[in-house]
C-alpha cells in the first residue's frame, strides 16, 4: 500500500455564477522515501493539489470529491482536530516564501520549540536541543546564535534552511515543498535543493516537490506529474518523460528550457497562455495551444493511455499507439 494515495480529487472554488473547478479528478500515489515532482505553468493547479492534501484550501475553496489516503486513512474526511495531529508532524510543508512562514516577532528558537511542544510532551530544554540539532543538520553556521535571532536578521538562504529544519523537527514521513527556492538566487537554489535531497535520502522521507523548473525535477525526483488546467496530463518515471515526452505540452515545456535552444536564436515558447478557471476550453484544455489538435481534441476530453511506463491524456498519442499496434499485427 502506498504511503499517500490521492484518488479522483476534485477541488472547486464557490464564486458568483457557479463553482470553478481547480482540480479535475486527479489521482496519484507516493511511496515511502519516494521523490515526486509536480510540474506545470502558473495556474496549472500544482499548489492547490499540495494544499488539498492537508486540507489547507482557504474559503471559498473546498474539496468537492475524491479521497486523500494517508496510510489508508482519508485526510479529506478528517476533522480539524484530527488533521492537527498530521500537519507539521507526520506531513510537513515547506512554503514558497520563508518570510511569510516565519513569525517576525518571535525568535527562531521560540518558533521551533513551540512547533515541537505542539505535538510532543517534552520539556523546553529538550525541545531546544532538538531544534539546535536540526539547525546543525541543515548546515546553518553558528546554530546556537541563530536560535536567539529573529527572521529579519537572517539572509534568504538561511531563512529557507530554517524552514527545512522546522519541517524536519518531528521526523515526518512526507515533506511537501512548494516552490522552495523561488525567492533565492541561482547558486543558493542549488545548495538548498541539494541539502533537501540529501536530508530526504538520509531519513527515507518521501518528498513531493512542486515546481515549474524541469531542470530541478530531472535532478531531484524519481517520478513526475505534469499538470495543465487542473488535470494531470502525463505522469510516470522522470527520466522516461524527460528523455521521451509524449504529451505536446510536456514536449513544449522541455523545448522551452534554455539549454535546448541554439546559440543566437530565440528561445522556444509555447504559444498562448494557461486558460483561466472560468474559461476552460471544451475537450482537451490544451487544444487551443497545440499544433497537433484535431476536431476530436476540441470535442472530447482524452482518457489516459499507457505508453511504456508513462500514462498520457492525449488523443494523438492514443492514435499513434493504435497505429503502431496495427502495424505489428500486420507484420506478424
Automatic annotation (TrEMBL):
Belongs to the ABC transporter superfamily. This is ABC-type dipeptide transporter. NCBIfam families: oligo_HPY (TIGR01727). Keywords: ATP-binding, Cell membrane, Membrane, Nucleotide-binding, Transport. GO terms for molecular function: ATP binding; ATP hydrolysis activity. SMART domains: AAA (SM00382). Residues 6-254 form the ABC transporter domain. GO terms for cellular component: plasma membrane. The complex is composed of two ATP-binding proteins (DppD and DppF), two transmembrane proteins (DppB and DppC) and a solute-binding protein (DppA1-A5). Five orthologous SBPs (DppA1-A5) are present in P.aeruginosa, which increases the substrate specificity of the DppBCDF transporter. It comes from Marinobacter nanhaiticus D15-8W. GO terms for biological process: peptide transport; transmembrane transport. Part of the ABC transporter DppABCDF involved in the uptake of various di/tripeptides. Is also involved in the uptake of phaseolotoxin, a toxic tripeptide inhibiting the enzyme ornithine carbamoyltransferase. Responsible for energy coupling to the transport system. It catalyses: a dipeptide(out) + ATP + H2O = a dipeptide(in) + ADP + phosphate + H(+). It is a peripheral membrane protein. It is an enzyme of class 7 (translocase). InterPro entries: AAA+_ATPase, ABC_Ni/Peptide_Import, ABC_transporter-like_ATP-bd, ABC_transporter-like_CS, Oligopep_ABC_C, P-loop_NTPase. The keyword ATP-binding applies. It is found in: Cell inner membrane. The keyword 4Fe-4S does not apply. Its EC number is 7.4.2.9.
